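Exercise 7. Predict the joint structure of the components listed below.
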Amino acid sequence: MRATTIHAPRDIRLEDVPDPAIEAPTDAIVRVVAGCICGSDLWPYRGENPIDAGSTIGHECVGVVEEIGSEVRDVRRGDFVVVPFCQCDNTCVNCRAGITSACENQGWTSTGQGEYARVVHADGSLVATDGMPDDDLLPSLLTLSDVMATGWHAAVAAGVRPGGTAVVVGDGAVGLCGVLAASVMGAERVVALSRHEPRQEIARRFGATDVVAGRGEEAEEAVREITGGVGADAVLECVGTGQSMDTAFGVARPGATVGFVGVPHGVELPLRRMFGRNIGLAGGVAPVRRYLPELLDLVTSGRIEPGLVFDSTLPLEDVAEGYRAMDERRAIKVLLRP
Amino acid sequence: MRATTIHAPRDIRLEDVPDPAIEAPTDAIVRVVAGCICGSDLWPYRGENPIDAGSTIGHECVGVVEEIGSEVRDVRRGDFVVVPFCQCDNTCVNCRAGITSACENQGWTSTGQGEYARVVHADGSLVATDGMPDDDLLPSLLTLSDVMATGWHAAVAAGVRPGGTAVVVGDGAVGLCGVLAASVMGAERVVALSRHEPRQEIARRFGATDVVAGRGEEAEEAVREITGGVGADAVLECVGTGQSMDTAFGVARPGATVGFVGVPHGVELPLRRMFGRNIGLAGGVAPVRRYLPELLDLVTSGRIEPGLVFDSTLPLEDVAEGYRAMDERRAIKVLLRP
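Solution:
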């Protein structure tokens, strides 16, 4: 089959690789109907994460179950499924505690930007739609594989509550989904930090009541003004850099929690400030599977349309161009069709 | 009046200083009946915090209200009161959110190891007992000024729940009070990390179900064994050093929260581990006033006796010896009687 591989920084190729096969009786093989490029894929692309030259890349996809192992019971051939980027048995002690992303029998998709993906613990990981979804639902369903579930996790971790204020740091696809999550959870004021007009527009459609175009101290000042000098009740940190984390803690009110979902790179936490103002930090790798039933219902009922984060759709052959577009911020998020 | 002053590392003196006086109409002057030395006082004592030579030191005390400002309504002359180490108006936006330690009109006691203390926002800060307490209640009441409320805050921040497991890192007075708090809150297993027999004994009296004498990797291994390989549901970090913080995160299960109340010194957080395992950090300066009514009730009803952390009582004249005893870990916590 064809799948995307990475060879060096900015060297992305679509190559022939061996077809994935059932390796354990709990596996399934999914034919990818749509995959996409994640903000976190840009870390190795930019050479900021180590690269295993020639390895496949891509962890988000939706598709149709092509083959199942002998012990798979709940998922059937022909099911249309959302593939959580981290897979889980959904029965271990960590899964039962809701942290499916720390499953004791974890698996990861690595051919989401390819034609087929092997999923371990198919019954624990996959969630099927009720019949074949319409094509226009595809982008939103695809976001449930990672980006919408991750934005949702940021809001959960930050403790967004009805009537409260939420600030979202980061206007990437995850940040925008964080805006949507905070809005759905009933935050009265949802402040999006963004300097890019097309992203601001999506943030507003996702429920942002305020958009702040400044950065750093300027953004902090603006949030202070919006919140009557108090700071935000909940802060969603959706980038993972030192600067974004500083801003997140800078806008948080005493007693607030920063929910973080951006893989941290070069972050030094303002521990004294956290201590002095009782600002907590929670979050991490999103337990996608835990949120899937709820999010799937929100999408299929039409209450949310997170698929709007895809502002570019390319055939899989053009995956390298997709990376370039996201790297240069010409695209928010690129959907790939095999 | 006489009050304790610090001049340089290990240079503690009892000196004559000006009597505190009402400066604002919301102030009160409290005659100190009992004060004490805090673990955090050892930071400047050991030269690890800057010292303002000749300044008074000591922030924990209980006593009798001697004088009140013209706007003080709820507190009266002659009341026996607990003085929270950080004072608050109990009406500002942060106080109303429960973070009284980030009051917009904050005050700090600095002559708790002296004969009198000025308290700002007396109505917001002080909580009076119902009549004069018996002498044998004094130590427990004194712990409510800081150490018991701080241990309680660690347990609240860590999210201790009935039936769960809690690990307490630190066997100082705060850590021991954290054991007591976790036990009162209904944790089924409360694991105290301590290598010192007298402290282990108090931990057991405070409800520790398990005592682990190891440190670092050894302690982590022991906790893993106690928790069936899972790790603790809640971790109370009551020291504030890099090593104690590492241990705290090392024993936390995925999805757990580390509640931290030890002023951080030289701490670098294991951010990748926190992210990968969804382990949060919460806590900070304890909002003592918020917990006072509940804790006062627990003490006066005899349900808890946190005063057991005082294993030494000295006349105020011997305050320098008190510091030495705590510095050398000959005493857990020293009570001072003016």
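Discussion. The two ends of chain A are 10 Å apart (CA to CA).
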